[in-house]
Amino acid sequence: MRAVLTRVKSASVSVDGNVIGQIGPGFLILLGVTHDDTEAQAVKLADKLTGLRIFEDEDGKMNRGLETVNGEILVISQFTLYGNCRKGRRPDFLAAARPEVAIPLYEKFVSLCREKGAVSIINDNVEIAAQTGADGVHVGQEDLEAGRARELLGPDKLIGVSAHSVEEALAAQAAGARAVDSPDSARGLSFTIRAGLSALAPIPAEDFLLFAAADQPRLGSGTAARLLDTARPGVLTAAACWEGKPGNPVLFSAALLPELEALTGDQGGRVVLRRHWDRCILLPAEDPLELVDADTPEALLALRQGESDTLKSY
Q1: For the segment 133-156, what is each residue's pLDDT rounded down to a tens digit?
Q2: pTM
Q3: Whole-number pLDDT of residue 148
Q4: What is the secondary structure of 158-212 as a DSSP string?
Q5: DSSP annotation of 57
Q6: Cα-trace Rg, the chain
Q7: What are the catalytic residues?
Q8: Helices 99-115 & 39-50, crossing angle to 10 degrees?
Q9: Buried b (16+ CB within 10 A) or exposed e, 16-46
Q10: Is 243 in contact with 251 (CB distance < 8 Å)?
Q11: Residue 193 contacts residue 212 (beta carbons within 8 Å)
């Protein structure tokens, strides 16, 4: 758990122009939570911060605490405190805890501050902030997961392969992907894969490739984000699954790039996945319909109505 504390004369947080938390003189605390944080750490941190004596007394010395100056605290969830910039120039936030871990600890920290009796106003509008985002300070679950994908992949590594029409290429670009023409896709999956791989910049061995199908409209950002979170040293492959049955998306270590480039005919990523099955991490999807693809308008309609029960599996 990490915190950045600043003495302020006043502070506020707004959402869409509406103030959801504000204080007068006191502490502005940005609070970050990581995966293995516990309530015990929240207790220790809250005790330390609320007990700090960093306000000046009549002699100009930092000798007064919040309780003696009637100070207030504004606490803001800030996952970027766990940004990692050790490699490259684009930070990743893999060390930041997911909302289901971070929010309860955030709320525990806030309640502990209240128990100290030194707090009159705290930003406890975490539910509102989590839904809409608070001026870029606290973003919602969906935005956070999409952000993780963007930070991990980067705009130069997010590829949309289109083999059919200009309209599809424009749709890919509108979604933030880079459209790549694949004129030989009719000859088999391997040609589509190579078209996408050839458009990538040189890939470091420690990087990863995410293979995702565009015809899985029920795939949620939560499942995709958990898959991206497995991209760590030592991992070779990972796949979304349901009841142990793997499907798309699939994550490949860049160490497997030569094998992916060597695919022929209608061979797809499943060939490489099966070859390294003993090292594949399976991550259960949040819903089985997430892994269902829709190849026809009728299948898409059935999927939207939740009627499909067939998973396209590796």
Answers
A1: 333 333 233 333 334 444 444 444
A2: 0.49
A3: 42
A4: -EEEESS-HHHHHHHHHTT-EEEE-TTGGG-HHHHHHHHHHTSPP--TT-EEEE-
A5: -
A6: 24
A7: 78-80
A8: 40
A9: eeeebbebeebbbbbbbbbeebeeebbeebb
A10: no
A11: no
